[in-house]
Write a structure and sequence with these properties.
alpha+beta, two-stranded antiparallel sheet, 3 helices
């Protein structure tokens, strides 16, 4: 196991070890969709972002919470 960086969602920034991330991706590592999108946003990976799709039940709960008074 190797630590490749961190992300601070409050500040929306993070630090990554670009060379090591690229090494592991070339070796066949597959980041999660969220991690992939963060790597794309920081310019480490050049592939397009992947859309995150929520199930309808989860989307309905989120919608209800945002529209509640």
């Amino acid at each position: 196991m190797e630590d490749l960086g961190s992300y601070k969602p409050i500040y929306k920034n993070g630090d990554r070890q670009k060379e090591r991330v690229l090494h592991w991706v070339k070796m066949g590592a597959q980041p999660t969709i969220t991690a992939h999108n963060l790597l794309v946003k920081q310019g480490i990976v050049t592939t397009p972002k992947i859309a995150i799709k929520m199930p309808k039940a989860v989307a309905k709960v989120v919608e209800e919470k945002t529209t509640a008074p």
